[in-house]
Amino acid sequence: MSDFITRFAPSPTGLLHLGHAFSALTAYEAARAAGGRFLLRIEDIDLARCKPEFEAAIVEDLAWLGLGWESPVRRQSAHFPEYARVLESLASRGLVYRCFKTRREIAEEIGRAPHHPGEGPEGVIYPGPAEPMSEEEEEARLAAGEAFAWRLSMRACREHLGARFDRLSFIEEGEGPEGEHGEVAARPETLGDVILGRKDVGTSYHLACTHDDALQGITHVIRGQDLFFATHVHALIQALMDWPAPRYRHHRLLLDEEGRRFAKRDRSLTLRALREAGETPQTIRARAGI
Ligand code: GLU
Questions:
Q1: Does 1-75+254-290 match 79-204+234-244 in CATH topology?
Q2: N or C: which end of the chain has fewer CB within 10 A?
Q3: CATH code for the domain defined by 1-75+254-290
Q4: Could you give the maximum distance between any two Cα atoms of the chain, in Å?
Q5: 10-residue averages of pLDDT along the chain (290 residues)
Q6: Alpha carbon nearest to ligand 1 atom 4, residue
Q7: What distance in Å separates the CA atoms of residue 188 and residue 235, rounded to the nearest whole number?
């Protein structure tokens, strides 16, 4: 067996659609071609949106498609204390800070900025506060029980890593949305001070995903191009935590007949609906071009 390990990491917030099937099959076939391992990871940190019935449907749909994976399956919601330890490590080095602001306050703050940071690939970019919060204010807010998110300070990361910050990169074996391939310079600052610990669950996609990729020894991350920009932040987190950097294969996004990305709203294109309409794993593969 080779040392190739990849994963499919869906969030059980709805039924899988054709786009997910394409992603899962791409990763599964890559592992098979390399004589490697294929893992399924359930990314269910969003306790409000993830549902056990969707997780059960994912398992059933993937098995129906003919995929097999190792057990036990890692379910992120069972590992919150591990993610909290990563935040502690970053906090002890001053790389993350508590942000008590609401979405609206951030929008207003950004609106007042002389150089409007605008929208990044992941929505509004928050470049961080003009001044760090005073210790007194932070203590008062904590004492009052105010909720906060942990944000990664790009300024602190730059100071911490020095010249390494500008040399961060990742290996793209697939293709980014603009044809990026090979060694890609990582520019995490273009996403602003991203949230690593959400107010509600204390972790975030970026943190849980990079932690688990490292823990599970993922050598190849195979996923859609919609997550290409997240990889810029992932490369930074890997450098800060001294985690090995997997190789990345971002794949094109499967589009529907109108040329739009598949979304949870396209009920008719869920694997469930397609199967009920008489499609087989073979016709699904043919639709996905795999
Ligand atoms: N859980 C993420 C999603 O469903 C994918 C994570 C990844 O592949 O890195 O969009």
A1: no
A2: N
A3: 3.40.50.620
A4: 64
A5: 91 94 97 98 98 98 98 98 98 98 90 76 83 96 98 98 98 97 97 96 97 98 96 98 98 84 75 95 92
A6: 10
A7: 8
